[in-house]
Structure formats: structure tokens, C-alpha cells
Specification:
This protein is about 75% helix and about 0% strand. The protein is rod-shaped. It starts with a helix and ends with a helix.
Length: about 80
């Protein structure tokens, strides 16, 4: 899941920076409505990124095998090869 999480963070970061560049370009050319639209898109990507970065993700539970070696052998024989 860490790879998926980092990929989505990267998507939000690139989206925010790309929309920010478009906002600046359209504002410099005098296209107010387009600049406002991409400004809103920039804010949406930035908020999504901030929420993802500040979310408290629970780590996956760790499974610890407390059985002894003899029990593991019996289990392996009963269940077959994996």
C-alpha cells in the first residue's frame, strides 16, 4: 500500500503544480475565467494532497508465529505445500 499511497501523493502534487502553472499562464494572458477555474483546480489538488499527508494511517497488523518448530511441521504436513 505504501507504493499506491506515494503514487497518489505524486499525482496530487503534479496536478497542483500543473494547475498552478496554467493559472499563472491564463492570468498573464488576461483570461480571467480560465485562470479562476484552474485556480480552483489548484486548490482542490492542494487540499487533497494536504489531507492525504496529514491522515493518520494505521499500520498493517504484524503477525507473529508463536508456535514451536514441531507444531509448524505438523501444520505444514496437514495443509500441504504452499
Amino acid at each position: 500500500m505504501a507504493v499506491w499511497r506515494s503514487f497518489m501523493d505524486l499525482v496530487h502534487l503534479i496536478g497542483a503544480l500543473g494547475c498552478l502553472a496554467l493559472t499563472g499562464g491564463f492570468a498573464a494572458q488576461g483570461h480571467g475565467p480560465r485562470a479562476a477555474f484552474y485556480g480552483l483546480c489548484t486548490m482542490a489538488f492542494a487540499v487533497a494532497l494536504a489531507r492525504r499527508l496529514h491522515a493518520h494511517h494505521q499500520p498493517a497488523p504484524t503477525v507473529v508465529d508463536l508456535r514451536g518448530p514441531a507444531t509448524r511441521e505438523v501444520t505444514r504436513e496437514a495443509t500441504g505445500p504452499r
